[in-house]
Amino acid sequence: MWESINLPISCNFSSFPHLKPSRKAQSLSQPRNLTLVQSRAPLPFLKPDRILLRNNNSQFLKHEKKGLFHVCRSSLNNPDPDKTEIQDEGRDWTSSVLLFALWGALLYYCFNLAPDQTPTQDLYFLKKLLNLKGDDGFRMNQILVGLWYIMGLWPVVYAMLLLPTGRSKTQAWPFVVFSFFGGVYALLPYFALWNPPSPPVSESELRQWPFNVLESKVTAGVTLVAGLGLILYALVGNAGDWKEFYQYFRESKFIHVTSLDFCLLSAFAPFWVYNDMTARKWFDKGRWLLPVSVVPFLGPSLYLLLRPALSETTAPTDSSASSSDPSQ
């Protein structure tokens, strides 16, 4: 039935007029002063699937596609969003997790597995070393005495390595201060949290405490001479001191944990020497000190004495000093 019906449709217009879109529709379809930029080249700061909308050289919105999810982040309040994102996404937490695991394992070993057969003797040794007990005729082991006092110099060495060129977002000085009491067990959490590169140190900071002391050749020289004297004092002892010290190491928790502390501080020192050397741009001239830094305490102390001043290498000039003088 419907097939037999013919409906004539006529049109008096030869062509349809061009309709002008309204301003509202035009603004929705294509915003003014907005350009669509899509990066197709593998630029270092843009991913291939990242789209940027810019308005008069100002970045408004970053649209990023990750798999099935779209992440939009506003960058109006961030002066350099690409740099911040790269730093956050580029952090490798593998070394941090391993160092935290090492720290936890060491604490568990010291409190639960280390030998603890002579707690009364440990307390007696501690009082003697702290000069809390007078002369009672007992002769202290010279190796133990040298080890005790050199453990008080290790935090000075690490302070000279960490505070100028080993800084991070996490403050280093609390860990350095606690290392005077806890040794490497207080420094390991900072090693795990450390995130390079370290912020630069200005010349005005280098002239203030504590950088003026830590960068001083006098401090490095006194540390080296004191450590060398303590090592010689321990080595020239009686022949039976080493055998006695080994027996203490197997029975005493105090001496066992302290000896382990000394070994770990010596093991981590070459890395921080290398970090300080590269930060001062002195690797080409001072690379021969890297194998020397493996020598416990004396190697890092010798490097601290011979390294160049930070103000001569990488310390930036202050803005006040760099500004031109109008009187000239």
Protein architecture, described:
The chain has about 325 residues and is α+β, with helices and mostly antiparallel strands. The chain has a domain at about 90-310. Helix content is about 55%, strand content about 10%. It has helices at about 25-30, 80-90, 95-115, 120-130, 140-150, 155-165, 175-180, 185-195, 205, 210-215, 215-235, 240-250, 255-280, 285, 290, 300-305, 320; strands spanning about 35-40, 50-55, 60-65, 70-75. It has a four-stranded antiparallel β-sheet with strand order 1-2-3-4, with no helix packed on it. Strand 3 (about 60-65) and strand 4 (about 70-75) form a beta hairpin. The radius of gyration is 33 Å and the shape is globular.
Keywords for this entry:
globular; disordered N terminus; disordered C terminus; about 325 residues; single chain; alpha+beta
Q: What is the fold's blueprint, element by element?
A:
Layout lengths: L22 H7 L5 E4 L11 E6 L2 E9 L2 E6 L6 H9 L4 H20 L5 H11 L12 H9 L3 H12 L7 H10 L1 H10 L9 H4 L4 H4 L2 H19 L4 H12 L1 H27 L3 H4 L2 H4 L5 H9 L12 H4 L6
Antiparallel strand pairs: 1-2, 2-3, 3-4
Helix pairs in contact: 3-8, 5-11, 6-7, 6-13, 7-8, 11-16, 12-13
Given the C-alpha coordinates, what overall shape results? globular
Task: Please state roughly what percent of the residues sit in beta strands, choosing from under 5%, 5-15%, 15-25%, 25-35%, 35-45% or over 45%.
Answer: 5-15%
Assembly of the depicted chains: single chain
Mean pLDDT: 77
Structural class: alpha+beta
Number of strands: 4
Rounded radius of gyration (Å): 33 Å
